[in-house]
């Protein structure tokens, strides 16, 4: 993978970078709070747009967006997991059974990303986003595959698959795990709580994996370690944590069905944006 060299920017360029990232963090925090979902599905398309405005080469832009998103998910998922665990809402048995499967998937994703093109990553993101959007917009309570979670080896393979897809998309796996658990008759509250733990299992190995995958790659913006941009990480984390409650308050004024349709539309627009960037 190759990209053009990016010169060290001056004060004005860094100020613009910071301003754009601040706007990205505010938007991501608002939408994450509004739709009650991990920020990765929101941050990756936002980062892709911002890094494009900053002239980050196309060859590394999606990789950088995904890796930076995973880095941001580490502290937020840890905080969320500890909070849910203190209330006894987490399915610790499922997490324990995935202690190898999910991180293995995240590592495999980083290996794939080290060789994958930007187009491939955008296609994966768009395809999964459309599938999730379909579920959100046309979901039925009657959709069930079983009365309880399946055993191994199927459960192990599902965990690995969630790790791979989430690692390639830069998300914490919440949407995918919620779908898996609710299809097997688990309550959404428990699924959401457990997804915070899944986010930890994905984001930690994913962070190191994307550092390795992008090590020595040219065309990355300043203050990047592999495919992780630390300026974005430092700016986004406090902003998303500050802004998210405002989105959450807005969410309480909307019905569950409105939220599902709203997030489904957001995912469709995001998928369309990536597909247009590929084929236009």
TrEMBL record:
Recorded topology in the membrane: Multi-pass membrane protein
GO cellular component: plasma membrane
Pfam families reported for this sequence: TauE
TM region(s), chain numbering: 15-48, 60-82, 94-112, 119-138, 158-180, 192-215, 227-247, 259-279
Keyword line: Cell membrane, Membrane, Transmembrane, Transmembrane helix
Protein's cellular compartments: Cell membrane; Membrane
Domain of life: Bacteria
Family recorded in the similarity comment: Belongs to the 4-toluene sulfonate uptake permease (TSUP) (TC 2.A.102) family.
Protein name from the UniProt record: Probable membrane transporter protein
């Amino acid at each position: 993978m190759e990209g053009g060299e990016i010169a060290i920017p001056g004060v004005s360029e860094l100020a613009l970078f910071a301003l754009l990232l601040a706007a990205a963090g505010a938007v991501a925090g608002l939408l994450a709070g509004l739709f009650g979902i991990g920020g990765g599905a929101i941050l990756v398309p936002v980062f892709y747009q911002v890094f494009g405005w900053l002239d980050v080469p196309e060859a590394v832009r999606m990789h950088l967006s995904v890796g930076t998103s995973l880095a941001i998910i580490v502290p937020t998922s840890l905080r969320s997991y500890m909070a849910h665990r203190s209330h006894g809402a987490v399915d610790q048995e499922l997490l324990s059974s995935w202690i190898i499967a999910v991180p293995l998937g995240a590592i495999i994703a980083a290996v794939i990303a080290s060789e994958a093109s930007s187009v491939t990553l955008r296609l994966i993101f768009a395809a999964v986003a459309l599938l999730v959007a379909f579920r959100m917009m046309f979901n039925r309570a009657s959709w069930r595959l079983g009365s309880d979670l399946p055993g191994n080896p199927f459960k192990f393979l599902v965990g690995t698959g969630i790790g791979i897809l989430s690692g390639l998309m830069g998300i914490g796996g919440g949407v995918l795990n919620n779908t898996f658990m609710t299809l097997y008759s688990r309550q959404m509250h428990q699924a959401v709580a457990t997804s915070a733990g899944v986010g930890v299992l994905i984001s930690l190995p994913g962070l190191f994996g994307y550092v390795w995958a992008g090590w020595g790659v040219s065309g990355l913006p300043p203050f990047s370690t592999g495919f992780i941009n630390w300026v974005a990480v430092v700016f986004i984390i406090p902003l998303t944590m500050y802004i998210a409650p405002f989105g959450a308050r807005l969410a309480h004024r909307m019905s569950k069905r409105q939220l599902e349709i709203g997030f489904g539309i957001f995912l469709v627009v995001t998928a369309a944006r990536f597909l247009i960037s590929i084929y236009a």
